[in-house]
Amino acid sequence: MTRALLGGSFDPVHAGHVAMAAHVLERGWADVVHVVPAWLSPHKDLAAAPAAARLDMVRLAFAGLPRIVVDPREIAAGRPCRTVETLESLVADHPGDPFRLVIGADNLADFHRWSRPDRLLELAQLVVLGREGWPLDDAAVAASGLPRRRVLLAPEFVRPVSSTAVRAMLAAESRSLADLVAGGLPAPVARHIIDHGLYRPDPNGEHRVPDPD
């Protein structure tokens, strides 16, 4: 069984993240996608939703979708985890299963800066999904210095919404459920944000919006 790792802060999870997992499955590049929310230090980003809330939102976003596993291992660790550490843990849990690591086209050029990129490529093939404004072809892979045989490209993929747009929407004073859903949040996630008062503007007038991923 081929497995894929889709990690991120998911702060908050939105329709673009769901589309990424779905596209990998539709292309037949994985039988199962492990969605792994990252743990974030409260000292690093006071504007981020708490880890438990982000995990709840990810579970809501992917609830009922087949072949998706929401994996809390990084949050359970209670500390920042390198992707290579998480991937090694997953491989150990599923010996013999091939793995793929899902990233966006914007991460391709800087992949060599990740922790132990050679080990990551040893453990998994890369699945690189298209992102507006980022070229994604054989030339882009060559420029990254990565071995072409270890990279699968999906330039046809287009994220229906960006994290930046979602965060700007959440910073608005007026946030109706309909507006949040229209802006790219799954309805259960939008309801959770409203019900729990997440991502509210700062009382001092400054919007408390998470930093970019």
Outline the structure in words.
This protein is α/β, with parallel strands linked by helices. The protein has one domain (3-161): 3-Layer(aba) Sandwich (Rossmann fold). It contains ten helices and six strands; from the N terminus they run E-H-E-H-E-H-H-E-H-H-E-H-E-H-H-H. The protein has helices at residues 15-26, 51-62, 73-77, 83-93, 105-108, 117-123, 138-144, 163-170, 177-182, 187-196, and strands at residues 3-8, 32-37, 68-70, 99-104, 124-129, 151-154. The chain has a six-stranded parallel beta sheet with strand order 3-2-1-4-5-6, with helices on both faces. Helix 1 (15-26) links the parallel strand 1 and strand 2 (32-37). The two termini are 30 Å apart. Residues 205-213 have low confidence and may be disordered.
Sequence-ordered SSE layout with sheet pairings:
Elements: E1 3-8, H1 15-26, E2 32-37, H2 51-62, E3 68-70, H3 73-77, H4 83-93, E4 99-104, H5 105-108, H6 117-123, E5 124-129, H7 138-144, E6 151-154, H8 163-170, H9 177-182, H10 187-196
Parallel strand pairs: 1-2, 1-4, 2-3, 4-5, 5-6
